[in-house]
Amino acid sequence: MLKKLFATFAVTAAMFTAQPSWAASPPNMLVIGTNLTGIRTLDPAQNNARTVSELISNLYDNLVQLSPDDLQTLKPMLATEWKVSEDGKLITLTLRDDAVFQSGNKVTAEDAAWSIQRVIKMGQVGSTDIALWGFTPENVEQLVRAKDEHTLEIELPQPVSTDLVLYSLAGSSIGIVDKKTVLSHEANGDFGGAWLSANSAGSGPFTLAQWRPNDVAIFNAQPDYWGGKPAMARVVARHIPESGNLRLQLEAGDVDVGHYLASGDLDALSKSEDIIIDSVPGLGFYYVALNQKDPDLQKPKVREAFQHAFDWKAIADNIMRYTGFPWQSMIPRGMIGAPSEVTDRYNYDPAKAKQLLAEAGYPNGLKKVLNPSGAPTLPFAEALQASARAAGIELDLVPGEFTPAFRERKYEVLLGNSGARLPDPFAVATQYAYNPDNSDEARLGSYYLWRTAMKVDELNGLVDQSMKERDTAKRTEIFKKIDAIYGGMNSPLMIFFQRTDPYVMRANVKGYQGHTTWSTRWHDVTKE
Questions:
Q1: What local confidence, expressed as pLDDT, does residue 159 receive?
Q2: Sign of torsion, CA 427 431 435 439?
Q3: CA separation (Å) from 52 to 160, 308, 374?
Q4: How many domains does the chain have?
Q5: What is the DSSP letter of 174?
Q6: Which of 56, 281, 396, 450 is deepest in the core (most CB within 10 A)?
Q7: In 3-state terms, what secondary structure has residue 498?
Q8: What single DSSP character describes residue 100?
């Protein structure tokens, strides 16, 4: 039986990696066309981006989880229950006793504690959320500990809303790994990171069968999964970066689910009865960033001129039809502290922009270099370039991948989009309104306001308050105040659209739901 199974897998793997043209996917296999560019490892501790988060979320279980249709209610996963001490300093989680890793080892509280310790000690991007709560390589072993085989204790090193801590435990980077197996593959103190780049050691519904960067990832169902055997025997994530090619394969049925399609291809697919497009609201925005290290862009009236130089309404129903909706608040729609509607802060007014430039000392206009953060934002950048010209701002558009330059503050004007996984306004506030140290040496690249070289002490204080406050009503008022200050200060980060992520599916695919926090899970997916 095993020989037959491995033979079948070998044939399937060869088909998915060798043939230029594929047959329609079988009923027990889900094929996802996506973009695997830049993903070098499937180690949870080393990742926090959209596509890789989905892959990891199916290899590793979390202690708790959030349903795609309810981002406020934490639900059990490996932890069946949890309680918070009256003073809010200790979270105690009780783990289920029927979960096993793919190795056959039982999932224990020691595995959970070590997984969190590992993320903090490695200090990679996967630690971004949980490190905010004050955990460090020096204190994490003492504070995150196994009380017994099924009881995990998390002691907080500083005052923080425990809801935020629990939300971060639902992120893909905090997937629980098999301590014994991973340590058996440790090399040179890397916590098993090199081995986990192309292997899995989780308790999730799928195991990693094959991983080739920028090519293909193949996952096999875990028949003994504690939550029941998945309906899909195999899931294949294929690297199909060209949108037109992906559209054709979706139409032919070669691919079941598609990510990152261009607006023109989405329009074409929307006319097919065999295709469903689900635009999932994201926790991020499309923005224009102005580098405050540039003397011209430091001037408030110049920043205000940019607010009126972009004809965002002209692209709202075409370029942004599936990838974003008009929004100009830094609090995502529907979250505590968000306005019911806000699209009137930055209206296109070329005459006003020219007047503001003249008042700032530029009667003949201004010239700057415009970079898109990457290829997906290029159409947005082209639209900005065209409308800004009429407003007296000449933007020399230089395409490419400029996110690294943005992190290094080496740009003039940049158009980008952001995302966050923590379903709370605090996650966005840390990106857009927080910069505790504006020096170059601080290298606080995870804070977008640092990337623009602006520091606002009042905002820093309010963001810190929003993290510590446990009362929801008080937190709501804090976020309203943050947004009011942000909206009135001519911010160097101008928000025009809230992000949505379009997930395209064949109509016969059931149970696949794009997740706002990027933790889309395949366990309940079926195909008719």
A1: 93
A2: positive
A3: 28, 37, 18
A4: 2
A5: G
A6: 56
A7: strand
A8: B
